[in-house]
Amino acid sequence: MHPFIHIHELTLPVYGLMMVTAAAIACLALWLLQRFGPQKPGRPSRSDISLTAMMAGVGALIGAAALRPIMRIIETAAGWEQYRQIPAGELLGQIFNGEFVFYGGLLGGAAALLLFCRRYKLAILPTIDLFAPALALGHAVGRIGCHFAGCCYGVEVAHDHPFAIIYPPESIGAPPGIPLLAAPLIESAFLFLLAGLLAFVYIKSKKTGLCLALYALMYSAQRFVLEFYRGDLIRGTYGAISTSQYISMALFVFGIVFTKCDKQSPGKTEANIDIYRRTLSQWWEEMPPMFATSSEKRQGRDEILSFIGRCLGQ
Which residues does 113 contact at the CB level (< 8 Å), separation at least 6? Predict the structure, then answer.
């Protein structure tokens, strides 16, 4: 669990090494699925996959670096009376501290992928299905880097807890000498299993969009629950839940809407959406945009892409 490894006079951060390893393993998984996977309609070519992965990677880096500052700017503006006494240089350092957030990377990478596919007329759902197992696998390796760095750590637990770990004094983020829940390793184990499931589904299933739906449902549910056992409060909590839990809820809802529309009649879909809308209206004054989609009939694809374009343009 040491954050650095020393080779002669060279000191290397384990977190950075694991991020590079995660990217390499994800790219290898992409290549293997594209090379040996089933010949599905709309599956992108090897060159298309390389370019799409590069654009998605750039978008992921931008999103991962931007999400936390965006949330801190909102937090600072909302509580300006509390922050106005802090010197400008120190305040900017708190806002732009170089922290990377997975969900920011996911949103940024997804936006870049969608825009690239739309610009060059690549089939969006087959491309995302191909990326989903590789994303989960790379994320699983990356969480091991979080474990070594001491970030994303869990809540304090008893010494005899089966998932307790104690970080050393040189840990970058986690408090040393205290038994903490091994949250990064728990999520890593889940993601390895999810990556295997998604790869199996991609190879065996003929359903377009199924890997995307499974990833959205399963990862968001896991992340929402695990957030309650995270001990790093710096990640941002608004109300009773964290930023990641808000995003998890949105991702989970997307997964539910996505999968249902292929499995029932249009009338049944509208009835279910109406029930959902009435339930939300008890707490929300204004309803969020809702889309009924079908991966097989491509229903709702243009509406969603147009909505994403409008959001990015604002």
Answer: 52, 55, 56, 59, 127, 128, 131
pLDDT surpasses 60 at 308: no
In a domain, 273, yes or no: yes
Please tell me the total count of domains within the chain. 1
The answer to whether residues 236 and 75 touch, using CB atoms and an 8 Å cutoff, is yes
Residue 45: is its pLDDT beyond 50? yes
Residue 269 CB neighbours (<10 A): 19
Mean pLDDT of 219-247: 80
Q: What number of CA atoms fall less than 13 Å from residue 16's CA on the CB side?
A: 5
Closest to 295 in 3D by CA, of 304, 283, 287, 282: 304
The conformation of residue 234, written as its DSSP 8-state character, comes to G
Which amino acid is it at 275? I
For residues 154 and 181, the answer to whether their CB atoms sit within 8 Å is yes
134 pLDDT higher than 90: yes
In a domain, 93, yes or no: no
Tokens at 190, concatenated: 């889940």
Q: Distance (Å, rounded) from C-alpha 192 to C-alpha 188?
A: 6
Residue written as tokens 């279910």? 272
Angle (CA) 244-246-247 rounded to 5° is 65
Q: Which domain holds residue 286?
A: 261-314
Residue 287 is given by DSSP the state P
Cβ distance 156 to 165 under 8 Å? Answer: no
Query: pLDDT tens digits, residue range 168-197?
Result: 888 887 888 899 999 999 999 999 999 999
Residue 198 lies in a domain: no
Is there a contact between 114 and 305 (Cβ–Cβ < 8 Å)?
yes
pTM of the full predicted structure? 0.76
Q: Give the type of residue at 280.
A: L
Q: Are 216 and 251 in contact (CB under 8 A)?
A: yes
Residue 299, in any domain of the structure: yes
Cα dihedral value 97, 143, 220, 244, nearest 10: -20
